[in-house]
Structures are given as structure tokens and as C-alpha cells.
Predict the structure.
Amino acid sequence: MNIPPQLSVVMPVYNGAAYLRAAVDSVLASRGVELELICVDDGSEDETLSIIREYEAKDSRVVGCAVKHAGVSVARNEALKVARGKFVTFVDSDDSVDPVFFARLLTKAREREADCVISGWTRVSGTERVPQPLVAREVAVRPVPALLAILPKNTWGSIYSREVLERSGAQFPPGMNYGEDVVFNYCVQPQCNRIVRLTDVGYFYHAREASLSYAPQKSVADMLDGARYLLSYYKEKGIYHDDNRENLLHYLVHSLRRARSLGTHECALQCSAWVAEMIETAGIRPEDFACIRTKDAKMLTAILDGKSGMGIDYYWRRLGRRIKGLFGGVGFRS
């Protein structure tokens, strides 16, 4: 037990008794890797903690923790404090993994001396399974922002070396439950020496109806908190230079797209307002927009000019397209 395992698997759980056994069983069935599974009960009100204690009693690889309910970010941070593995990964408590998934990622990490390996996944909805493979790619030696921006930002399905986690000192923003993995990766990925992206789809993401993404106002508020956290992190680490200013700008664009996907007029206006605020707070100038896509730069310029490409004009244009789609163009004139 004194020898660190190859991999620490972090699994935060909140009221997850209905799916927890399947998730834990899939991780413990992993082959070709020495691992520990750290299950953190985030103040659940169901049988979650008793299930964790049951597995902890019968399998020495399971480490159980219990914290007062404070959200997924705090739960993951608590697990990182006790993780001993040479690499760390994250699995949601209602997902599952292929038995050789972790072994494949670890093999690639060792072969390429990578600080981070990112995989594709399979989306599971009922009996339907839809593979979501990534294009294999390698980004080496302090990845530049333009390349970082196109990398997936989910922590599940990825592994991280202990070295880069210790070097970055990155944590998940406390109190943030939507997009916290994006912020974490914008802290960690810029400090990786090498990132490898794989086509592997051995992580099974189980789509559930209940999700924080269905609470639009809270989701946008979380994204604003994430931007503030990221700026504070870069400044405290003394690394808020041109590259990380560009990374923050990419995060803002990413957040605008997510807010747009939430599909409400209020979210569009709210997100536009806080992006304008963050651009000013972070000292980002219009000339810095050259590092992002032209249409994104135009959108940000419109927001700063008070025309708000995420606001009323965009909302009504989108609604108009939906109406035209419903009527199939019948009776419409240009």
C-alpha cells in the first residue's frame, strides 16, 4: 500500500445511489493498470455514503471520503488532496469505462512522455450508443492558445500527470458546478509540456435529463465566476502574459457560445454584459481580438459597442429562423 498506484480515479458523488454501483464496478473491472478509486460523497441524502463504505470494506483500492455538501468542485479538490497516483483521472458517478480504457491512455502517456492524454467518448442514451471519436493529434512543448482552444475541456476521459498538477497547483473553482472542468483545464493545459489526443471512445458518458445545464441563469453566473477565477489564478501565479491573456479571451468566447446554446434571451443579455465587464477588468484591448476567429472578434466588438451580438438582435434572428423552419418556407417572402 505504500507504493503509489499508477492511476488515481476521482469520482465525486451527490445523491448518486441509483447509478453509483455500475460506475464503481466498471472502474474496478479495469485491466492492465494499478489504480485507486477515490469516491467523495458530497453530503448526499440518499444511500450514497453507505454504498461507498461497502465497497471500501471489500476492496482495498477504494478510498471513501465524505464532505459537507458544497458542490462538485469542492468534492474533486478534496479527492486531489489524498490522490497518490502518478496520473490522475476523473469519472462521473453515473458514467462508466471500458475495461482497458485506462490502460490505453496510460500506455500512450508513457510512450509520448505526455502530461495530459485526452480521449474521445461514447454518448449513451437509453439503448443508443453514439461514438464521439477525436482526431488523433499531439501538441508539444507549452501548447499555444490557438491549439489549446480546440482541445476538449472535459476532465472525464482525460488523464493528467501528477507533475503537471503539482506544477500548476490547479484546483476546481469552489462553488462552481457548471463549466468547472473548462476552467480547470484552462489552468492546467497551458502548463503541459505535451498533450496527446486519442480517437479512443472507451469512456461512456450517460446522458441524463437532470443537469445543471438546464438552469440557464445559474449556468451563466457560473461562467462569469469561472472567468474571474481564471484571471485571478493567472495573476496569482505571475503568468498573466500575452499567451494567457489570449487563453482568457478564448474562454470568454467559449462561454458566449455556451450561453448561446442555452437559448434564452435573458442569458444572451446577461452573458454579453459580463463579457464586456471581464474584457475591461482583464485589460484586454480590441487589438487583442486578432488572435480569435473573425466572426468571434466581430461579436465581441459589437458587445463592447453596446450592439450586443449576443443580445436582442441575435435572439430575434434565431427565433425567425426557427419559425421559417417550422413553416418550411410556405407563405414567406424575402
